[in-house]
Amino acid sequence: MRENLTIGFIGNPNCGKTTLFNAYTGANLKVANWPGVTVEKVEGAIKDHDLNIRLVDLPGTYSLTSYTMEEQVSRQFILSDEVDVIIDVADASALERNLYLTLQLLELGKPVVLALNMMDIVEKRGMEIDTHRLPEMLGIPVIPVSARKRIGLDVLLHAAAHHKDCKDPECLIHHHKYKPKHRHDHHSEYAMVYSDAIEDKIDLIMAELKRKYPNLTNYRWHAIKLLEQDKEISERYPVSLPDVIDRNYESDIINEKYDFIQEIIREVLVNKDRQDALTEKVDQALTHRVWGIPIFLGIMAVVFFLTFTIGDWLKGYFEMGIESLSALLSDGLVAAGVNEMLRSLLVDGIVAGVGGILTFLPNIFILFLALAFLEDSGYMARVAYVMEGIMSKLGLSGRAFIPMILGFGCTVPAIMASRALENRRDRFKVMLITPFMSCSARLPIYILFAEMFFQEHAMLVAYSMYLIGLLVAILVAAVIHLIDRRKSENYLLIELPEYKIPSSRTVAIYVWEKVKDYLTKAGTTIFVASILMWVILNFGPQGYTTEMADSFGAILGHWLVPFFAPIGLGFWQIAVALIAGISAKEVVVSSCAVLFGVPNINSGAGMDTLVGILSASGFGQLNAFCLMVFCLLYIPCAAALATIRKESGSTRWMLLSALFQLVVAWVVTFIVYRIGLFI
Amino acid sequence: MYLCDGKIGNNYKVSDIELPTNMEKRLEALGMTRGTSVAVLNSKSHGVLIVKVRGTRFALGRNITKNILVG
């Protein structure tokens, strides 16, 4: 029988915790939701050492107070019996701040192992850490690792496995070089020993706790928390010692912890002043007072340029594959004597719809690759600083801009990222405007229609969509800010990590997840939508029909035309495609393929056919532009709507925001169409 | 003076923080307690700053910097 071991990973944000976690779990990674709380934890399982090891990745946190939801969840999880041992991941290149969490973890009384991550960076900068003295001062094993270079991973796991039963600190050796000996000499028991004044109070509270709650464990931690007037502990274990807890001692306790950290740093860190000059230099340009915003816009322009050009170049090969597959299938089915109806479903419905979407995979791949680079390099946090000026005029914090950029990739994670905003009003605002940021699912629509109708200006037209989306989002935020005059206080506070070359493994995992999502979507939502589309276009009141004009689809489309006509989209096929597009935005394209009977819609020949059909019915450049604008702004896809419902916790809010987006889309497209007609 | 008026390249000592408790506690957890030295690395107009506190860089909005009294 293998023994079970549960290891909790905890650390500051940006300490490389997730990289380390991924290095262990690799493909076994799965995402689960905390029961009842919206904070996510990630779990992975590995087998080692005759142990079934379960790894739990907790949200990054600087401290373990009970002021935020994440911190409360992490604290409760660590204190629960579920965790056998904690691995505290510290960024060795920022040891001073990372040790603050370590000291708090030590007081929890659970077995802790310290993983000194990013040791390669420390060495590269010429700094050195005394990894012999550090465990002596903390009383726990300290293991140098490099998650990026996969160094020290096995040793860390061994240390955790062997240390799982050690509740008392080992090897604590504390010299009083800097302070005279004091009355409370607990240095052989605890790493963190406070001043006599505080220790006196801790002793008194501990005595009272032991009397009042004889079944409690770890009295010292509870006593410290009571001194800090921690909300959760004070409510759960009230003591009445008005003379001892005469005020909130939290600031004193924090200060003394940092004093001790300084003592540790003095003893273990050699060449402390070797700072990374590179980050400072890069920041001087990227966060420049004047150039910061133009540089950001330039970077985004490059991202989309690469998405279109490299993506298009790769796309050609995909098209050839789909084309030959389609021909092969068609011939095979004819040879096998399959009846006409089934043949039509397979070739005109499924291959045309799903196959058409698959050809856009290279564009999507490049876009997410670029976004992964931006996220992993450390630039994303700078954007919050750069945009703070503009965002504060909209009543939002610069931090709210990060979900908006993520929205260029996919609206679903972008809306989830709005959790990082503390303010509830801000979250709702961001949820309302993020869908206007043009996500990757809308890309196929731009690529197809821009290339069909604007040829050499295609990229410019596609760029304009991103700009229109951004402008509408900003405008909507500004209007809301004007209406809701309540002076909202926004506090921008975000750590700016050091720049680093993105880790290929992290980027690969990130991109693979997205590509997998896209393929899954093609195989599920788009697959089903294509079949449904085929059904409503091939069946009418009279049953199966090859005459599309008699189908249910046509009836529905004609019925919707009056709504779409004023915005230049009064074509029944387009109306049907747009309704179908609510399932997923790519479906607009796959539906067009089915609706217009164009098998390989993204190929040169396919496009020519479609332009021919559309032009014949009076659908020109202006109509194409209006279609793109409408697709950009109208109701987000079903997955995004579900996320909005989940994150806001309100179906009413989801419906209201969908209606709002529909109205905005209609009005903006109407204006564009009227101006276009005038020109 | 307040931190929002800090000049690039200078070091300041925090003497008081006048923010809502939640915000104050978050700053303290990051090591910005009374007496801590804060270096201003970069600034934009209206007191939006990049500062370095105990070896870590942070971007701080004006609503924070205008409420941190420094000496």
Automatic annotation (TrEMBL), chain A:
Main localization of the protein described in the UniProt heading: membrane
Ranges that cross the membrane: 290-311, 350-374, 394-416, 428-449, 461-483, 518-539, 559-580, 619-641, 653-676
Name of the protein in its database record: Ferrous iron transport protein B
Protein keywords: Cell inner membrane, Cell membrane, GTP-binding, Ion transport, Iron, Iron transport, Magnesium, Membrane, Metal-binding, Nucleotide-binding, Transmembrane, Transmembrane helix, Transport
Entries under Gene3D superfamilies matching the protein: 1.10.287.1770, P-loop containing nucleotide triphosphate hydrolases
InterPro entries from the UniProt entry: Fe2_transport_prot-B, Fe2_transport_prot_B_C, FeoB_Cyto, FeoB_GTPase, G_FEOB_dom, Gate_dom, GTP-bd, P-loop_NTPase
PANTHER family assigned to the protein according to its UniProt record, in alphabetical order: FE(2+) TRANSPORTER FEOB, FERROUS IRON TRANSPORT PROTEIN B
GO molecular function, one term: metal ion binding
Subcellular location: Cell inner membrane; Cell membrane
Binding, Mg(2+) 1: 22
Positions of GTP binding: 11-18, 36-40, 57-60, 117-120
Family: Belongs to the TRAFAC class TrmE-Era-EngA-EngB-Septin-like GTPase superfamily. FeoB GTPase (TC 9.A.8) family.
Domain of life: Bacteria
The FeoB-type G domain, residue ranges: 4-166
One of the Pfam families matching this protein, by short name: Gate
GO terms under cellular component: plasma membrane
Organism of provenance: Faecalibacterium prausnitzii
Function: Probable transporter of a GTP-driven Fe(2+) uptake system.
Membrane topology annotation: Multi-pass membrane protein
Gene: feoB
Residues where Mg(2+) 2 binds: 23, 25-26
UniProtKB/TrEMBL annotation, chain B:
Keywords: Iron
Boundaries of every Ferrous iron transporter FeoA-like domain copy: 1-71
InterPro entries: Fe-transptr_FeoA-like, FeoA-like, FeoA_core_dom, Transcriptional_repressor_C
Metal-binding among keywords: no
Coiled-coil residue spans: none
Highest taxon of the lineage: Bacteria
MF-aspect GO terms: transition metal ion binding
Gene3D superfamilies per record: 2.30.30.90
One Pfam family in the UniProt entry: FeoA
Protein known as: Ferrous iron transport protein A
